[in-house]
Amino acid sequence: MPTRVHEFSWPDRVVVGTIGLPGARTFYLQVRAGTQVVSIAMEKQQSAALAEKIDEILDELITLKGNPFSVPTGTPVELVDNDPLEAVHEQFRTGAMSLGWDPTTAQIVIEAHPLPSDDPDDNDESLHEDGTDEPEMLRVRMPVGTARAFTKRTFEIVAAGRPMCPLCGYPMDAEGHICTPPES
Fold first, then answer.
1. At 139, is the secondary structure helix, strand, or coil?
2. Domain for residue 154, yes or no?
């Protein structure tokens, strides 16, 4: 069966955002072009790693002689997006992701695939609105300025979680935190 591809070549918006309180947040990669909005659930670590890798690619492109792709060193002010997520209808939970660079359009390319089903006999969760169980994926192409703004916001969202314990290094919950300091 062919894969259903949710493709965004020049998105109006591409952001990582969360729903829930620190310690119980769900991270989403949300993309919009016109009226089409796709939201996929991600792990916090996936969000952070994606932003780090995009930043690495952009920083490497800057070093090319003459910066031929006009990669900004910082986030262009006009591309800063601090708005909350739009209505979230989770398309799928992200499993494998790939990241690339398209020099013909000067765009970062993200591909995300859903987690594989644990139970091959359980088709209920993989059924789509139209009743099919076709495989799907998300492909997003971002211009360099949008990619830089994406990484800035993603780093801020990831850092806005629970504070880290200065003694043990693990996250502290609002209800309290009991830890054993490292032995000297």
1. strand
2. yes
